Amino acid sequence: MSDWKQICRASFFWLALGFLFAATGYATDPQELRKQASWNWPDANRFRTSFEEWIDRSLKEDAKREARDAATALSTKRGITLHEAVLHLASECDASIKSFVDSLRGTWGADSLQSLDAQLSSLIANGAIPGWIKPDLQLAYARALVHHQFIDEAVSHLSPLTIDSTSDPSSWLFTIAICQHHLLMKQPCEESLGKLLERETEIPSRYAITARLMLTDIEPLKEDSLDEIARMMNDVERRLALGRAGKQVRDQEQAIIDKLEKMIEQLEQQQQQQQQQQRQRGGSQQQQRPNQDPMKQSQPAGAEGAGDVDEKDIGDASGWGNLPPAQRQEALQSITKDLPSHYREVIEAYFKRLANSPSKP
Fold this sequence. Notes:
Layout: H1 2-24, H2 44-58, H3 61-73, H4 80-93, H5 95-105, H6 112-125, H7 134-147, H8 151-158, H9 169-182, H10 186-196, H11 205-218, H12 226-241, H13 247-288, H14 294-297, H15 325-336, H16 341-356
Helix pairs in contact: 2-3, 2-4, 4-5, 5-6, 5-7, 6-7, 7-8, 7-9, 8-9, 9-10, 9-11, 10-11, 12-13
C-alpha cells in the first residue's frame, strides 16, 4: 500500500510541475526553451488558398484538377521548397510568368539583363497577376542576378522587399546577405546573417554553412586595411568583367587610391618615428659612454674633443618619392605582400607615378 502511495505522490508531483510550466509560460521541450527567432515562416495554407482562387478564375476545367492538387501540396512545404513550388504553380497559371521563370533558368546572353528587366516590369505592372506572387518573382530574379554576379542589380530588387513579403524569408535573407558581403556592407551583412542563423536548424544546410563562413570572413574586416583594399579591387575587377566602367567604378578606383595613399602616409610616419627613436637611443648611448680622458674634454676649442655625427638626409617625410630607395622598396613590399599577385603591378605602377609627380607644396 505504501508503494502505491509513493506512485500517486510522484504522479501528482509531475502533473503539478507540468501545470506550473504551462502557467508560467515555460516550455517543457528543450528546443522550445531556446531564444525565439525574430521572424516566422509564412503560413503555407495562405498560399494554397490564394492559388485555389487564382486557379478557379484563370485555368480551364481540364487543367484545374491537377493544379488544385499541386496547390493542396503547398500546405506541407516550407522555405526554399515552398518558394520553388510557388514559382512552378504560378507558371502553370500564367504563360508570361512561365516565360520569365524559364528565362531565369536558361543561358544568359549579352542582352539577357535588359530583356529580363523588361519582362519583370511587365509582370509587376500586370493587374491580372495577383500582388502576393510578385515579391516571389522579384526574389527569383534577384537570386538569378547573384548567380550571374550582378550584385548591384540584385540589391535593387531585394531592398524593396521585407522579410515577410515572400514565401521564403530564409532565401531573401541569404541572398541579400551575399550582396552585402560582396559590397563590404559589414554591419548590414552581420545583421542579415544573424537573423538567418536564428533558425539555423530549420534552413537548408548549404544556407547555414555558407552563412557561418561569410560571418567568420567579414567579422574581422577593418576599414582602411589591406584586406578591405584587396576586396575592393576584387569588386572593381568583377564590375569591369561585366562591362561596367562608369562613375561608380571610377569612384571606387579613386577610393582605393585614397586608401593606399593614406596607408603610405601612415607607413612613412612610422618609419620616421622609428628613425627618430634610433637617433635618440644613439645619442643617449653616446652621452652615457664613460669619460676615459677628462683632460682632453676640458681643452679649449681647436683641440681634440668629442665629435658630432652628421645626420643622414632622408628627404621630405611627406612625399613617398622622397624616401630613400631601400626604404621605398621595403614599404612597397610591406603593402603588397598580402594582396593578390595580379594587383601588385597596378600598385607598383601607382607608386612609380607618385614618385615621379611633383612634390606637394
